[in-house]
Backbone:
């Protein structure tokens, strides 16, 4: 690929790292207004909603049902209080079974 | 103490490592077919460590897009991490800036989600390093492996494993949703907004996730600030 590739890689690394690094170092030790800290503490839960939907339905192109079964399986295993690994491996297992035999 | 915190982090991050396995393997494979050497492909996973934008860069390289545009596109796809690390800053124990700058490198959608939803009130740097180490290790090693073996998993397993990261997100969200109306509202509104941006094609994925997360976090916070917690006990009474 040559030197152009490495320049591109350097640029990609830089623009990926900067948004990850700036808030953690610049906001370090600053006291933010309660409304702002409230909003920031909401972000993990909001981001999970946005990351899951609608992408989960499109994990297999053109097969909406596949993603739906996966999402429902994961939800059911999780709601019964099982841990991360059980949810992840259990969902993979159910979908492996589904794609082998359905 | 530090040691066990790190080990706890490794354990918490194990499911990310499993989820990254098929994604990194396929990335290594695609990179090979794009014409990248083993060294070039693995270097991208080592230095960039951002799944979606790495995939996109491959298709753009194939299409012969200007490298500068590829870098700009990477920035747009990853700008949402700005929001995540701002939020993470509130969750982390105080630490010297170089330490924070070091683990900042490893903040992805997945490591952020695992660390930020941790049951601990404040998370130690050692815990974050544990989560990140195992996730990053998986990402880099399986990128290289995908390139080297040049073959993928059997189709049914490939298909099944494509759900892994979403199952992880669901597994992180559900326990927090239990008995917590605010969490349910936050996730639902962000999901609805993202669907809206997705189906109307108003925003590209990077911006859409950023916008729906931020809007949901702000709207719900303002609703709670305005109406306080008043409506909630009233409704909860009905349920009990």
Residues:
């Amino acid at each position: 690929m040559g030197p152009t590739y490495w320049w591109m890689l350097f640029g990609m690394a830089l623009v990926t790292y900067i948004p990850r690094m700036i808030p953690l170092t610049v906001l370090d030790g600053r006291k933010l207004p309660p409304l702002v800290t409230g909003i920031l503490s909401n972000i993990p839960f909001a981001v999970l909603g946005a990351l899951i939907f609608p992408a989960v339905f499109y994990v297999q192109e053109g097969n909406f049902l596949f993603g739906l079964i996966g999402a429902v399986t994961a939800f059911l295993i999780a709601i019964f209080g099982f841990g991360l690994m059980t949810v992840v491996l259990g969902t993979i297992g159910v979908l492996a079974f589904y794609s082998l035999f359905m | 103490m530090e040691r066990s915190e790190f080990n706890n982090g490794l354990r918490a991050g194990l499911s990310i490592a499993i989820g990254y396995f098929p994604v990194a393997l396929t990335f290594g494979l695609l990179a090979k077919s794009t014409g990248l050497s083993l060294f070039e492909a693995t270097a991208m996973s080592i230095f960039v460590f951002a799944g979606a934008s790495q995939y996109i860069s491959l298709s753009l390289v194939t299409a012969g897009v200007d490298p500068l545009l590829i870098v700009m596109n990477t920035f747009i796809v990853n700008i949402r991490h700005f929001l995540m690390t701002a939020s993470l800053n509130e969750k982390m124990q105080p630490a010297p800036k170089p330490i924070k700058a070091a683990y900042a490198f490893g903040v992805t959608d997945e490591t952020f989600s695992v660390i930020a939803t941790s049951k601990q009130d404040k998370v130690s740097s050692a815990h974050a390093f544990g989560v990140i180490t195992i996730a990053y290790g998986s990402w880099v090693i399986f990128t290289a492996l995908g390139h080297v073996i040049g073959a993928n998993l059997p189709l049914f397993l490939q298909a099944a494993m494509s759900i892994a990261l979403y199952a992880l997100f669901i597994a992180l969200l559900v326990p927090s949703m239990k008995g917590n109306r605010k969490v349910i509202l936050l996730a639902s509104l962000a999901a609805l907004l993202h669907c809206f941006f997705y189906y109307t094609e108003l925003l590209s994925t990077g911006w859409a996730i950023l916008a729906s997360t931020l809007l949901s976090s702000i709207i719900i916070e303002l609703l709670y600030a305005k109406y306080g917690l008043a409506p909630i006990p009233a409704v909860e009474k009905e349920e009990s």
User: Anything to note?
Assistant: Residues 44-101 of chain A form one domain.
